[in-house]
Amino acid sequence: MISMLIPDEPYLGFAALCHIAGAFCLIPALLHTRTPQGTIAWLISLLAFPYIAVPFYLILGRRTFSGYVETRRRQTDSESPWGELTDKITNCMKPYAIRSADTAGEIMQTLGDIVRLPVCRGNSCQLLIDADNAFPRIYDAIKKAERYILIEFFIIKNDSVGRNLKNLLIERAREGIHIYMLYDEIGSHKLPPGYISALRKEGVKIEPFNGKRHFLSNVLRLNFRNHRKLVVVDGSTAFIGGMNIGREYLGKGALGYWRDTFIQLHGPSVQQTQISFLEDWNWATMSKSTPSTFPRLCWDITPQPEDKTVLVLPSGPADVIPAWKTTIIALANRATHRLWISTPYFVPDEGVMSALQAAALRNVDVRILRPERADHILVKLSSFTFLRDLDTYGIQLWAYKKGFLHQKVILMDDDIATVGTANLDNRSLALNFELTAIVRDPGVCAEVQAMLEKDFYSSVRESLEDYNKKSLGFKMLCNLARLMAPVQ
């Protein structure tokens, strides 16, 4: 009898360890999971299937990025070298900081207070619709750089577009331009070491977002990604938007025509973009770099005659108050006649959905524009399940048919427009580092309105009736996909 039990003893010991680990994970799951549904799901999984649930919880269950929080604290500490630099840049923006007591002004000021950046006038903004307009403008700015270039992308591919960028940066580095480049390890997982080494060989300082930390530490951060896309040249011009570096953004991928939007900025907003990059660089280099790493950094501001009001809003899992979620809810709560949202991924949480529904009940024209084609099938399936929540309240859901729609744009009334990197899904609301330009200007809002009206013309409205006609199997798949929304 004893001999029969011996083979099972290792298994019993392993099982006991798994259940003990699951029990320990229950505490943070109860304390820190943000939704009741998420808490219940983790509790059941950790108790019933700890062998599988524990490693998944360690990677996917964490909701805060404590290491980055510490990096941000150092960068805002006026006693530290980084804090001194941040203060210098922020002080240069103060002459352009404005406060306004009207609705749009209050929204902008609240968001500025959350991210500790001033809302500034003196900016110029130009929409860059699709890669055919955005890439040439970015390349032209890089070619005209006189001091330095800051570049940050979620995805960089070693295809014709990626190689063109690499060759251009090498050319500029050989001409003495200082170049600093960040990429996300998950988004750019196919980027070969040779691409990186070729840039470093020519003096380009390129780093992965999570830096050269040890393996386990990086595994535990897999669920947190840097989704930002930005370029800053000489501290005088900045680009923010939805496109990454790859051929598909030119419409040369499997999804065909790629609909996307960038925005080009001049004025104080460039310095806000620059501060965001410096925070990310500080984290990526494990705070080993100092301001002397950027010998040509410029924070002089030339006010633009267009005099547009802009706030560049960084958001992510290091936020004390979730900046992007607060932005959407604030826009929905204060909209009076229009709230148009264009996003490739529509899987909102309950707070955002409630705000959209409340706006629709006030007779605000609430529209959600998403792509008919999908590059992430789970997100596509999940979004179908929201049709009842939308249709019942009169919120319109539109499917873009001309190609793949990837832009992240919001228009509130005729007052505020946003262009950036953040979607309306759990990743952008809670897990990804994002960057959004929030513009208060009637002219820019009119341009965004015209752009979105053209997009709606290439779209078809979806209804709950369309969903009800689907098969039972399809509906079950959609609801199963929605259960996985927190990790999509």
Automatic annotation (TrEMBL):
It is an enzyme of class 2 (transferase). Its EC number is 2.7.8.-. InterPro entries: Cardiolipin_synthase, CLS_N, PLD-like_dom, PLipase_D/transphosphatidylase. The keyword Secreted does not apply. Residues 222-249, 401-428 form the PLD phosphodiesterase domain. Keywords: Cell membrane, Lipid biosynthesis, Lipid metabolism, Membrane, Phospholipid biosynthesis, Phospholipid metabolism, Repeat, Transferase, Transmembrane, Transmembrane helix. This is Cardiolipin synthase. It comes from Akkermansia biwaensis.
